[in-house]
Each structure stands twice: as structure tokens, then as C-alpha cells.
């Protein structure tokens, strides 16, 4: 049985640090028509995953708000998530899924952005060798996203994706970009890949509009990326410290974000396990650093909607 940590920094003399979870997924595989993801064969994930199931996990950790990141390729699921989020005030935003460079992008962006909970889109860079950037309509749509003061989340990290994030910031310097789950990525050892990775990381140092989620931290001692609950997941913060130190050295304390990746992260371990690792690491940097990671930076990045008294206190 895994124990649940108390809210961060809570003692008899100090107030707890509130938390904004910038990365959860909402879906209902049992609704009419089902969902594109997860697959029915995945016993861990194939469950109704809505705010009512998330709250009892989140609130004991001091989480006062959450941002959904869309995991469905279906256009109308953008609206479905907005409808779900509006009914529960723990939800402070959603990152939808639209494809830049398509004829309907701008009209769909305008449609969904009418709801203030719509805080940006997620798009999987890195798959086409940067060829999207040769298309003026693709770059124009990213500019429209920036002009709407919305965010681009970038799916799962790879050498090619990181290089494309640099391309995005070259072409659209005022667009806020979020690299999701960077701790998951083990730096490459092959010469050319390592050179590209190092070049991207150097570029990120001086680009304040690029944020990173210190999420999907958990790994085991033998595999690059754990895929089974039977793997020997490391529970000691010291094991993760070198990778977290590297990320913090590049991005600094003002551009790191907390994300649980619930419920996807349950394939590794329940939320409190990964939470404890990052809690210990960032509290070790001091209270202000922990506040920046757990909530302050999310305000600057996502400009999420404050719906409750506890959220409105985060200024």
C-alpha cells in the first residue's frame, strides 16, 4: 500500500503549498462510440477517468486545480472535455487537439477558444523532420495560436521533437511552448543524435517562452522507459536527481511545471509515488522554488482560469 503525502510544506508553523497539476487526461471509454485511446486491452487505463475519480487522489496532495491535456484525435472531443471541465471547478483549463496547417484550424480554434477554459493545443512535433515549417499555412496557424495568447504542448519528447521546438521558437518567438514529460527521455548516446540533443538544450537556455513539464519522472533501474507495473521502479529521489538537475540547469526554476500524467502514469505507479519524488526534490531547493514549480509557473505559462477561492489566492 502506498502512503499519501501531506500537502507540501505543511507544518504547525507554515502554510501548505498549493499545487496546480498541469497534465491530466479525461475520457470515458464507456460512452456511446467509445474513445480512440486507451485500448480495451489496457486494464490499468480502460476506466472512466473523470474529475470525480481524480479529486480523491489529488486533494490529499494539496492539488487545488488541474489542466486536462487532450488524448483524443476526435475533433468533437475538444468540446466534450470542455463540457466535462465546466461541471467541476477543480478543472482550471484544457489543452485541446487541433492540427495546424489544415484549412479548418483557425475556425475551430476560434470556436473552442470562446470558452476561457481552452488554454491551447497539443501537437506532436518531431515526426516529419521539420517539413511542416516549409508550409506557410502551418506557421501561420502557429502565429494565430500565439496571437490568441494560447499555448502549444508538444507530446512526448524525442531528439526530433526537441529540434522542432527550436524551429517553432525561431519562427514564432512569442508562442509559449511546453515540452511534456522530458524526464522520460534518456539523453541519446549515438553521436549525431547527441549533437542534436545538446544543440536543442543549449537553445532552450535563453528562450523564456519555452517551458518544460517535470512529469513522468518514474523509471526503473534496468529499462529506458518502464512499461510494466512489475518492473522494479526506483523509489529513491537520489536516483532521479542527476536527470532533474540537468533539466533544471537548462530551463531554470521559472520554467518548470508539475504534471501527474494521471491516469496514464498509473501504468508505472499511482500519483502519490511520483509526487513524493518531485516534492522531495523541489522542497530541497527551498520554499520559493517549490512554489514556482508546483503553481506559480503554471499561471505564467497557461494563464488558467481561477474558479474557486483557493485558486484565486494564487496570484
Keywords:
single chain, 315 residues, alpha/beta, TIM Barrel, eight-stranded parallel sheet, 12% strand, globular
**What CATH architecture would you give?**
Alpha-Beta Barrel
The geometry reads as globular
In angstroms, what is the radius of gyration?
19 Å
CATH topology-level name: TIM Barrel
What is the beta-strand fraction?
A: 5-15%
Number of helices: 10
Helix content: 25-40%
Mean pLDDT: 91
End-to-end distance: 36 Å
**Largest pleated sheet:** 8 strands, parallel
Structural class: alpha/beta
Strand order across the largest sheet: 1-2-3-4-5-6-7-8
**CATH class annotation:** Alpha Beta
The tally of structural domains comes to 1
CATH superfamily: Metal-dependent hydrolases
Q: Which segments are poorly predicted (pLDDT under 50) over 5 or more consecutive residues?
A: 10-14
Count the beta strands.
8
Order of helices and strands: EHEHEHEHEHEHEHEHHH
Task: Write up what this structure looks like.
- The protein is an alpha/beta fold.
- It has one domain (19-312): Alpha-Beta Barrel (TIM Barrel), CATH 3.20.20.140.
- It has ten helices and eight strands.
- It has helices at 51-58, 77-86, 105-113, 136-147, 159-171, 191-204, 237-251, 271-283, 287-302, 309-312; strands spanning 19-24, 63-69, 91-96, 118-122, 151-153, 176-179, 210-214, 256-258.
- An eight-stranded parallel sheet has the order 1-2-3-4-5-6-7-8.
- α5 links the parallel β5 and β6 (176-179).
- α5 packs parallel to α6 (191-204) and α7 packs across α8 (271-283).
- The protein is globular and about 45 Å long.
- The model is unreliable at 10-14 (pLDDT under 50).
